[in-house]
């Protein structure tokens, strides 16, 4: 069953999501609603060309990376040791989210439209979203962004303009989180790229214990 949201700040019980994880439609992308969503393992994901209202998901199995389990391949270790890339955090959020949206704008089902970009930019200015930037010769060549609440990082999107730049961003994020006591990176959806870097499934119950 998919619930219809209204202007009130609420979500249905996440356990009522359908088999694909779809829980609700409607509401808005306000800072308060997004924070309530992420604190309960819910996130918005919808094609902005086909859907005029946000669609909210809460999968029963969660694909995550634990910072201390990040897989760094031999080739990536070599890349890091060469110091080709430099890294920063929250120095170019607008550019990172802009590149993530630009690279996927022509894809079928593209979800990072103007409303989503504006919503996560508001979260960033409130201190709840963050970006990792990868630089090569002073040029932004890769990065990622997501929502950061307490010890959990909820990854949203990444991009790469040079070989392995997005992988490097994820490794840097995991290492930084581990050094700061972070516990989990929520990948939202499984991809071969993320599985190769240590991603695995855990139950919603275990997931909620970790993010709370």
List the main descriptive attributes of the protein structure presented here.
single chain; 212 residues; alpha+beta; seven-stranded mixed sheet; four-stranded mixed sheet; 7 helices; 11 strands; 33% helix; 27% strand; globular
Structure description:
The chain is of the alpha+beta class and 212 residues long. Helices cover 33% and strands 27% of the residues. The protein is built from 7 helices and 11 strands. Strands 6-7-8-9-10-5-11 form a 7-stranded mixed beta sheet, with helices on both faces. A hairpin with a 2-residue loop joins strand 8 and strand 9. The longest helix is centred in the C-terminal third of the chain and has 15 residues, at 165-179. The chain is globular and about 50 Å long. The two termini are 26 Å apart. The model has no long low-confidence stretch (mean pLDDT 95).
